[in-house]
Structures are given as structure tokens and as C-alpha cells.
Design goal:
Strand order of the largest sheet: 1-2-3-4-6-5
Largest sheet: 6 strands, antiparallel
Number of domains: 5
Structural class: alpha+beta
Number of helices: 18
Strand content: 15-25%
Low-confidence stretches: 161-172, 288-357, 370-383
Radius of gyration: 45 Å
Shape: elongated
Length: 679
């Protein structure tokens, strides 16, 4: 069925070209921005969302927040608005495919490829988390891979706006990737995105999602009541570090996950550098059941609920809501079992143990077993009852002191809870003093930051507002300023080549102007600002000057001028004058003057040639004598020869006879005057 929006213009600016995709909340079109003459992705929301004014106000705020986030791995939000009954978002158009397409085509990916694909996703999430933005709907469909290899995360801000518009506790997201706390109606934070990214990494490593079911509610139940398995159980031979990474991200208890994208990105890159080539290139062994790909498109879908952003419902409708009741830990659904968040849900510690830690634990356990074996279970001889009573008294006193000490330690002492203060934009000394006042010890760590001046605090890990034990070390991030990168040389190539180079360097295209250049062909970049090699931030706009080729020169008209004057006029215009070897007679142009030129008009390029033809004056013609003949006959014959005739009548020229002629019987220039005296 033909889409009625295709071919129309939205808000007088966006010309809809074709439909790219359709989901549970919106339809995405390829459109052209008439004002800026560029292709964009136009996301048009479904009518039930577009007709709610409260939601549109919320969407506007979220779109502005997302638009303020500029990062090479995040799809930019360019515009948001309403046109009659249409509510829309305008986003950067990334021409390519999605991570879902890659998974459908290839199934399980080798760890090297999986880690390389998810690295820019986590980097984009880290930037968003540092800016206070949460995605809430991380899934392969929202990971866009451009034809030139750039990877970007899309749909920031939309899920949050939609979830805020639903009934209290209603859940928005893709069920296969939802964090347990979202299922239970608890607030989302950066760790909710980390959980979704962990589920996505599991799918990339194994080719399937960890949970499946006949309905969304069954999948949601497993998120809350089950622990994500080890990827190596599905793909034997995967490195243990990958098991630990996935289970760290997908811990049911959010407190046991990485605190944000930055924390995960650090561990992810550490693992990539420590795994061997054999571990990174490990591939899944062929299974009895293989994926079948059609010649035109892959149609593999690991889970029937994996492809659309949807609201989980108690019915079979693909896009509905589950409303959380007053008890935030229990969900009741018609026709489905009730379930609770498990107390102490399965998960791993916030920092996955390395191999050294495991070996140290094993050595300590061996020592404890040896010590226990060497300790007698009963004394060799009975002691004095009074002595035993004294010993028990001492033991009780010691235990009481230990209990009091433990109470002090975990209450008011170093083991007590404390809230991490906000230290952003403070000097290092001020930040450390704030942390000491709150009872924490901090360790500074230098990081690049585009927004915070060098030498000032960027933030902490755990982040400000988190409640942690005071003995837990706090990492204080100190800004080194914006990270700078040298600009490539963009001159000498075409404008399209310069754009490709800017994208590769993660820079922006600035103003493009044109200028004439006598040596550089049209369409070639002749200058850039900032200049090549200058170190600037990612995303810096670079202005370009493109050659229009040599400047055209109007050809001056020098016909009728003397030869020397004509040559000078041609040369003064920047052109070259050439005299034709042949001269020509011309009765109207004096000898030595220009009678014609080629070209006679139009434009030429500097240094090109104008050919001048010079006159040798009128040709000489013999003048016959008509004395004694009738004046009318004489005049007629003389005019045939090219002369001008003047008649001088004497006594009225009664007889009409030529009495005298000047000149006569000699040669005269063509076009000259012959005088006849007539009586």
C-alpha cells in the first residue's frame, strides 16, 4: 500500500523521498532538507503519540537534550517539530545498515569483531552518560553502521520521552534487552544501558539472545528471575574474560554492574589488549542446525520480540504496556505467572576477578585447610573449671569489644556509608578536600574532556550522589582539557574527497566558498581553515575554498583601430594578439587598421589568443572617361565600378552632357568620389 507521506513536504522544509523502516512508535523516512540541501532521517511518530500535547512538550525537551550531545558515535538530532497532525524528529541520515543486519547475516561473531563493533557503541554511551543522558533502548537495531565503517548509536531521548508519557509504571523498550529494574518499574540509570549492552554482546558472541519465550511477559520474567548464562556454554572455547565481562554487565543487581559507560569502556579495552590472537579469532564450531539465508535478504530473527521497540503487555499485541502496581517488586499479568525480583539476584562483582586474584584466593584456601587440619578438635587434657570460666569471660569481653568496634567501624567509622559529593569544575585541591570532608580518600586520574577546563575536576567514580562505604577508594577524574587531533591536508582533491577525509578524521564541514584560480582546475580544493596539521578538537568545522578555475576575460572589440593600438588593447586585457599573415582590401577601413578579429566577442581565459586581420586599404580601380557622354549613363557606370559620383550642373545641365570629369583615365581608390561637370 502506498504511503501517503511519500512525495509530500513536511513543515514546508522536509521532502519525503521513501520509507526506511517502521516500528512500534514511529515510521522512519528518507527525506531531503530543502533549506540545507542534504538528506536526513525523518522519524514521524504514530498518531496516538502525536496527538498528546503533554507528550510533545516532553519530547521537545528530550530532543533538545539529545541535540546538545555531539559525538562521532552518536546519531545527531537535528530538528524537532509539529506540522498539523504530524509530530516528527529530524536526525542525521547514516547510509548503511544496522548491527541487526550483521547478526542476521553472520550469526555468532568472532570475539575480535564483536569487541571492535561494540567498542564505539560503549564510547558513545560513555559520552551520553557523562552528559547525564540515558538511552533506555540499546539494541542491535539502534546501532547504525555506515558504508564507510562509521558506527553510531541512534534514538537518544525518544524512549525516555515515550515512557514518561505512558501510565504510571508503564514500560517502554525492547523486551529482549530490558534491564530487570525497568521490568520492575524502578528508575532507569546508566547501568540500565549497561545491562542492555551486555545482552547485546552475549548475542554477538553466541548468535542468539539469552532469553526467549512465546510472549514478551515470559522473556521479562526471565530477566528478573534468571541469571544470564556464560557465553562459552553456547560457544565452547570462548575466553573466560569474555564470560566475566558479559556477566558483569548483566548482573540482575544494578549495584554489581559497571557504574556507567566509561567504566565499561576501560575494562572492554583492557580485555581486547590482553586476549591472545587465538582467543580473539575463536569461531563457533558448525552446529547441526545452520542458519539459512535467502538470496535477496536475511530473515533470521533469534526472538520474535527482538526487532521492535515495544511496550510489554498482557496480551499478544506487539506494542502495549504493562502497568506496575503499588508493589514495585511484583508484576501481575492476566494469563501469566506472577514473579518477584529475587533477593540477591545472580550476578558478578563490579570488577571481574582476574586470573591473579583467583590464584591468590586458591592459595589462601589451601592455607586455611592446612591450618584447620593441624588444629586439634579437643584439648589433650582437661583444664581447670575456674580457668575455663575466666577464659570464657575474657572471650566474651573480647567479642563484645569486637562487636562494638565493628559497630563503630560500619556506623560512624571508615566502614560507614557516605554520599559522594559533586566535585565537577572544582580545582583538584578543592575536590580532594570535599571528598576528605565526606570521609573518602581519592586517587586523581587524568582524562581528556571537551567541556571542563584543564586542571579542574571532571567527576568521580563512583559518580556524585552515590552512597558507598567510606573505605572504598574514590577515583577523581581531572581534566587534561580537550583532546586535540591534527587536521589532514584537504587541498588538491575534490570537494567529495575532502568531505570523506573530514568524516574519517571525525571533523565537521564548515563554510564552502568558491574562488577563481588560474592554475587549479574547477572543483578542486585550494585552501582550508584551520590549516593542515593544526591540532583541534573532534567535530571542529573546517572551512574550504574550492576553485572555480581560471577567471573568464571578456574579449575587447578592436576593429577599426590601428594595428598597434589594437594589439595593446588585447594585451592589456590579459590576452595574446596574433596578426593574420594575409591583409585584405577594405574600402571603409584605412590601411594599417584592424578590419576583423577572431573571436569578435565572448570570453577567453587569460593568455588565450585573439587573431587580428589588418586592412591594406581600398583597392585601386581604373576610372574611364565619360566626357561627351550623357551624365546619367556616366553616373551609372561609375557607381558599378564602386565609385561615388558627384554631379556639378552648369547652366542647369540643360543638355545633360558631360563636359568635364575628375579624375578620368587614371586609377583611383574604390569608393572614392568622381566629379562630373554637366552642361
Amino acid at each position: 500500500m502506498q504511503d501517503h507521506l511519500i512525495g509530500t513536504t513536511v513543515d514546508g522544509r522536509y521532502v519525503v523521498r521513501s520509507r526506511l523502516a517502521k516500528g512500534g512508535m514511529s515510521t522512519v523516512y528518507l527525506a531531503t532538507d530543502r533549506r540545507l540541501e542534504r538528506d536526513v532521517a525523518l522519524k514521524v511518530l504514530h498518531p496516538h503519540l502525536a496527538n498528546d500535547q503533554t507528550f510533545l512538550e516532553r519530547l521537545s525537551r528530550e530532543a533538545k537534550a539529545a541535540a546538545s550531545l555531539s559525538h562521532p558515535h552518536i546519531v545527531g538530532v537535528l530538528d524537532q517539530g509539529e506540522d498539523a497532525h504530524i509530530a516528527y524528529l529530524v536526525m542525521e541520515y547514516v547510509k548503511g545498515h544496522t548491527l541487526r543486519d550483521v547478526l542476521n547475516k553472520q550469526g555468532a561473531l568472532p570475539p575480535r569483531l564483536a569487541l571492535a563493533l561494540i567498542d564505539p557503541v560503549i564510547e558513545g554511551l560513555a559520552a551520553a552518560h557523562n552528559s547525564g543522558l540515558i538511552h533506555r533502548d540499546i539494541k542491535p537495531e539502534n546501532v547504525l553502521i555506515a558504508h564507510d565503517g562509521r558506527i553510531k548509536v541512534g534514538d537518544f531521548g525518544l524512549a525516555r520521552a515515550i515512557s514518561a508519557n505512558t501510565s504510571t509504571g508503564a514500560l517502554i523498550g525492547t523486551v529482549a534487552y530490558l534491564a530487570p529494574e525497568l521490568v520492575l518499574g524502578q528508575p532507569a540509570d546508566a547501568r540500565s544501558d549497561i545491562y542492555s549492552a551486555g545482552i547485546m554482546l552475549y548475542e554477538m558472541l553466541t548468535g542468539k539472545q539469552p532469553y526467549s519465550g512465546d510472549s514478551p511477559i515470559q522473556v521479562a520474567y526471565q530477566h528478573v528471575n534468571s541469571a544470564v548464562g556464560r557465553p562459552s556454554e553456547a560457544v565452547p572455547g570462548l575466553a573466560e574474560d569474555l564470560n566475566e565481562l558479559v556477566q558483569w554487565c548483566t548482573a540482575a543487581d544494578a549495584e554489581k554492574r559497571p557504574v556507567d559507560g566509561s567504566a565499561l569502556l576501560t575494562e572492554l579495552r583492557h580485555i581486547r589488549t590482553t586476549l591472545s590472537d587465538e582467543q580473539l579469532d575463536h569461531r563457533q564450531q558448525p552446529a547441526a542446525t545452520s542458519l539459512s539465508h535467502a538470496s535477496t535478504a536475511a530473515t533470521v530473527a533469534p526472538n520474535p520480540f527482538s526487532n521492535a521497540t515495544e511496550a510489554i503487555a498482557t496480551t499478544a499485541s506487539p506494542t502495549e504496556f504493562i502497568s506496575h502496581q503499588s508493589n514495585p517488586t511484583t508484576i501481575m499479568a492476566a494469563g501469566a505467572p506472577s514473579f518477584q525480583a529475587p533477593a540477591g539476584a545472580a550476578g558478578v562483582d563490579t570488577r571481574p576477578p582476574g586470573k591473579r586474584d583467583l590464584k591468590r584466593i586458591e592459595r589462601q584456601q589451601a592455607k586455611d585447610r592446612a591450618r584447620a587440619a593441624a588444629t586439634p578438635v579437643r584439648p589433650l587434657r582437661e583444664g581447670n573449671p575456674r580457668r575455663r570460666g575466666l577464659i570464657w569471660t575474657v572471650v566474651i569481653v573480647i567479642l563484645a569489644l569486637l562487636a562494638a568496634s565493628a559497630g563503630w567501624f560500619f556506623g560512624m567509622g571508615p566502614g560507614g556509608p557516605g554520599t559522594v559529593p559533586d566535585v565537577k569544575n572544582k580545582t583538584v585541591a578543592e575536590a580532594q578536600q570535599l571528598l576528605r570532608t565526606a570521609g573518602f580518600q581519592s586517587e586523581p586520574q587524568d582524562v581528556f574532556d571537551d567541556d571542563v577546563l584543564a586542571g579542574l575536576a571532571v567527576g568521580t567514580r563512583p559518580e556524585s550522589g552515590a552512597e558507598v562505604r567510606k573505605f572504598q577508594p574514590i577515583t577523581l577524574f581531572v581534566s587534561k582539557g580537550a583532546q586535540l587531533f591534527p587536521l589532514p591536508d584537504l587541498t588538491g582533491g575534490t570537494l567529495d574527497q575532502a568531505k570523506t577525509a573530514l568524516n574519517g578524521a571525525q571533523m565537521a564541514l564548515g563554510n564552502v566558498t568558491q574562488a577563481f584560480d588560474e592554475k587549479v582546475p574547477a572543483g578542486v580544493v585550494i585552501a582550508q581553515d584551520p590549516a593542515k596539521g593544526k591540532e583541534v578538537r573532534h567535530g571542529t568545522p573546517v572551512a574550504l575554498v574550492v576553485s572555480k578555475g581560471p577567471q573568464p576575460i571578456p574579449v575587447p572589440d578592436v576593429r577599426g583601430l590601428a594595428q598597434d593600438a589594437a594589439v595593446k588593447a588585447i594585451q592589456d586585457a590579459g590576452l595574446k594578439a596574433v596578426i593574420a599573415p594575409e591583409t585584405v582590401n577594405d574600402k571603409s577601413v584605412p590601411k594599417g587598421s584592424v578590419v576583423s578579429q577572431a573571436p569578435a566577442n565572448g570570453t577567453l581565459i587569460k593568455g588565450e589568443t585573439v587573431t587580428l586581420t589588418v586592412s591594406k586599404g581600398p583597392k585601386m580601380v581604373k576610372v574611364p572617361s565619360f566626357i561627351g557622354k550623357q551624365a546619367t549613363e556616366a553616373k551609372r557606370e561609375l557607381e558599378k565600378l564602386g565609385f561615388k559620383v558627384e554631379v556639378n550642373n552648369i547652366l542647369g545641365g540643360f543638355f545633360g552632357s558631360v563636359r568635364d570629369q575628375n579624375p578620368a583615365n587614371t586609377e583611383a581608390p574604390e569608393g572614392s568620389v568622381v566629379t562630373l561637370t554637366v552642361v
